[in-house]
């Protein structure tokens, strides 16, 4: 089995091992059923919280377990190495995109009402930015919120919103000002608010156990105090968190790839063809070695960018490129894993088949590769003079 542990402190190695042990105990026996059911049991959040794994990277003063992004990376590496699906990672840790803006700029009331209960496993939050007609172009959203006395009245729709079906609240990007990035705010909308509905639960190629919804806002009224931070500053709060989200997706990418490598190595060692193990063929060994090389490169680049971000450097372009490197690795390695498994790799009962479906979302979610490449080009000074 291939594992990468260099770069971690003793404490981070222990955290990674805790994540692996938790997976074997609490995830492996149930994951296939969760994937079939299309849902993660709500009590799973409590299990994560009880194990001290739900609030890693979130300050203790708001109910988290402390630590920084590198601790999150070590934990997630353990989860993925032990076999988490993309849907489980996205669904169990949606708060990684739902609450950071509240932690950063929200009032004490918002933190007490939403952040602390999420980190104790009692509430599930989600983040709604994408709309039916607006994907990676965040500045073009059209869902509008108009102030009416001490309330906001919201009208519009959101699409592809992770954990919104079972979620208890949605941190929603809305237009409160003029066109473009300067007119966007963030408002928390609790589930059950009149006029706020999940129009439908979406069926997806992968991420099956992660619920994904289309949302409708029809004269939804929420208190003015549910505004996150300052009015018309929402785009900047969102942009501040994009680096972390893209590093998180890069971690998922090389995590899927490493898991696929290990599953495929075991299969090639155990599977006999033409009187010898598959791994005895030079072409197979060459593929396995190339899979290893790509995983190692993606991991090194991702963790370097994460370390630089923790150190306070601006790594917006580098995070875009780390995500692309890791998710391209995931797509290629998962494809080779299915190929080397042969017909068995094409069956739903095969774990590599699940990874093959799950990784296909990664070059799309969190900013499509094409959009992020163009953003990186501009930040690196490669644009038109």
TrEMBL record:
<dbReference type="InterPro" id="IPR009075">
    <property type="entry name" value="AcylCo_DH/oxidase_C"/>
</dbReference>
<dbReference type="InterPro" id="IPR036250">
    <property type="entry name" value="AcylCo_DH-like_C"/>
</dbReference>
<dbReference type="InterPro" id="IPR050741">
    <property type="entry name" value="Acyl-CoA_dehydrogenase"/>
</dbReference>
<dbReference type="GO" id="GO:0016491">
    <property type="term" value="F:oxidoreductase activity"/>
</dbReference>
<protein>
    <submittedName>
        <fullName>Acyl-CoA dehydrogenase family protein</fullName>
        <ecNumber>1.-.-.-</ecNumber>
    </submittedName>
</protein>
<dbReference type="InterPro" id="IPR013786">
    <property type="entry name" value="AcylCoA_DH/ox_N"/>
</dbReference>
<feature type="domain" description="Acyl-CoA dehydrogenase/oxidase C-terminal">
    <location>
        <begin position="232"/>
        <end position="378"/>
    </location>
</feature>
<keyword id="KW-0560">Oxidoreductase</keyword>
<keyword id="KW-0285">Flavoprotein</keyword>
<dbReference type="InterPro" id="IPR009100">
    <property type="entry name" value="AcylCoA_DH/oxidase_NM_dom_sf"/>
</dbReference>
<dbReference type="InterPro" id="IPR046373">
    <property type="entry name" value="Acyl-CoA_Oxase/DH_mid-dom_sf"/>
</dbReference>
<dbReference type="Pfam" id="PF02771">
    <property type="entry name" value="Acyl-CoA_dh_N"/>
</dbReference>
<dbReference type="InterPro" id="IPR006091">
    <property type="entry name" value="Acyl-CoA_Oxase/DH_mid-dom"/>
</dbReference>
<dbReference type="InterPro" id="IPR037069">
    <property type="entry name" value="AcylCoA_DH/ox_N_sf"/>
</dbReference>
<feature type="domain" description="Acyl-CoA dehydrogenase/oxidase N-terminal">
    <location>
        <begin position="9"/>
        <end position="122"/>
    </location>
</feature>
<keyword id="KW-0274">FAD</keyword>
<comment type="similarity">
    <text>Belongs to the acyl-CoA dehydrogenase family.</text>
</comment>
<dbReference type="Pfam" id="PF02770">
    <property type="entry name" value="Acyl-CoA_dh_M"/>
</dbReference>
<dbReference type="Pfam" id="PF00441">
    <property type="entry name" value="Acyl-CoA_dh_1"/>
</dbReference>
<dbReference type="InterPro" id="IPR006089">
    <property type="entry name" value="Acyl-CoA_DH_CS"/>
</dbReference>
<feature type="domain" description="Acyl-CoA oxidase/dehydrogenase middle">
    <location>
        <begin position="127"/>
        <end position="220"/>
    </location>
</feature>
